[in-house]
Amino acid sequence: MFELSQRGPRILFGLTTVLVGLFLFAPIYWLLISAFKGNSELYRIIPTLWPGEPTLTHFSTAFTRGNLLVNLKNSLIVSGGSAALNMALAAYAGYALAKFRFAGRRMLMIVLLSAQATPFGLLLITIYPSLVAFDLLDTHLGLILASIVFALPVSTYMMFSYFSQVPGELIDAARADGASELRIFHTIVLPISIPALVTVFLYAFMWSWNDLLYSMTLIVSEEKRTIGPGLLLNYLNETNADWGGAMAASLVASLPILIAFAIVQRSFIQGVTAGAVK
Amino acid sequence: MSVAPARALPSSPPVSRLAARGGLKAGERRVGWIFMVPALVAFTAVILWPFISALGLAFTRYDLRTPEPIFIGLANFRAILASPQILGSFVTTFVFVTLATVFTVAVALAWALILNQSFRGRALLRTATLIPWVLPATVAAFVWAWIFNSRFGVLNAALLSMGIIDLPQAWLSTSAGAMTAVVITKVWISVPVTTTFFLAGLQSMDREQIDAARVDGASDWHVLRDHIMPHLRPVLLVVLVLAVIGNLQQFDKIFALTGGGPVRATTVLSIEVYRLAFDSWDIGMAAAVGLLWVATIVPPAFLYLRHLLKDA
Q1: So what's the ipTM on this one?
Q2: Chain B contacts of A248, Cβ < 8 Å?
Q3: Is-above-0.80 flag for pTM?
Q4: Which residues in chain A are closer than 8 Å to B143, comparing Cβ atoms?
Q5: Check: CATH 1.20.120.140 for B84-311?
Q6: Do A211 and B137 touch (CB under 8 A)?
Q7: DSSP track, chain A
Q8: pLDDT (tens digit, 9 = 90+) per residue, B230-247?
């Protein structure tokens, strides 16, 4: 829609394309090929741009030596649990905000949206002792509950935007038939909202999967550790940094989230930018 | 569940259950709140209450030697004012947020304009652009730590072979190098989603307006300055505000990449609060710094909120 007509801008444009493209994608390329390089090739002052002798050594040691599989399993439990809980909470709340006019509704929206600005690190100061008090420190349940912090406000807003577009006639017709409000929501509204629900689920899943702060503070024991702190503690001690292993394990840790993202990317992007851009 | 009370009297008009008790308005109020309850309970438990009690702790002494918080008024804030280290972390935060925000917005804007051109493979490139954003924080930090590695990093190799530097640089061990690294890493992660916002804004651009300008002989630069940028103004504001909020809150990537070091060169407020709370167990001081941290986020958050609520 904005085709360039002059030579100068075209050259500038081409140059920017190459530079930004390199900046965005070269690191990913480097991650990929470093994972497949043997140690003798990896630790060179002037590196090779393509693995001369591609090897899977780093992957096999990543799976056998560290706790990668245990970390992955724990992350799956925590992120799955947290995303499901977050999705359910956001769905009911988003529906209430979109379809019912009740006193305090606007106030609730303001409080909910401002919560996005609260720094997670500050909340952690009091979440930590609360989890200790309920005997939930160092448990997956504790981390699941705490992880609601990341996504609940935005998720609720995403569900609110979605439900605002569901035609009121649909709901009124069901009401005229005498269906209860809960029943209307469960049997009529939710089934047509699956794309929005999936988006919200994955949004929360991503936050939780990618988190470091909460998962490294609220989980102490090694066998319960999730992937973020797991990677950090397994691969980057100052004394022996195993970069090949770190790159291979990073690829494995990123794969689930990349696959999930690839499946729903379109509705995901729409959901995330909803509201912010009008 | 589904038996309507109105059925008993076939002659009366059907009344929805919502309106059955106290009329439609009262019904909406009741049911609306009931739907809100689960989220409200969770919200209060993990966000609202922790937030308020953390702010309260800012006025207490609460550390390893004081098992219960003791009210000490503004003493923590006086201690902050007297501590060049903590004041330094405000400066570090300011430097980090400014650099990260400016570069993120500039690069994302350029990239959005590029992705808005029509060329083959554009859809694929748009999707691929989001990859840095979906990667786990630790992974992003690993990738850049490896690139910046002083002995075998590809950045040193590239700069050496181009003759820009004579000796390999120990990027992460110098103050300026570490700040450069965390800013670059944060920009790398933020550009994708920021680009998406700009692209969404460009989508609603009126094609005919540009065509008309072209007919009038407008140059590329004039089209950009007089038509595209004014159109992107509201998006630009949102993007700036979101970037500032996000950068003020940034913790994971900095912690994984430098741990706040070397010494305190990349100790932004998020790292400061974390160290005070979970390394020194000085909860009172952590909360006091946290309160000031929140104060820095309030102005951009207010702007964002005003924008979102315009038609809610």
Answers
A1: 0.90
A2: none
A3: yes
A4: 27-28, 30-31, 247, 250
A5: no
A6: yes
A7: -----SHHHHHHHHHHHHHHHHHHHHHHHHHHHHHTS-HHHHS-SS--SS-SS---HHHHHHHHTSSHHHHHHHHHHHHHHHHHHHHHHHHHHHHHHHH---TTHHHHHHHHHHGGGS-HHHHHHHHHHHHHHTT-TTSHHHHHHHTHHHHHHHHHHHHHHHHHTS-HHHHHHHHHTT--HHHHIIIIIGGGGHHHHHHHHHHHHHHHHH--HHHHHH--SGGG--HHHHHHHHHB-SS-B-HHHHHHHHHHHHHHHHHHHHHHHHHHHHHHHTTT--
A8: 888 888 988 999 899 999
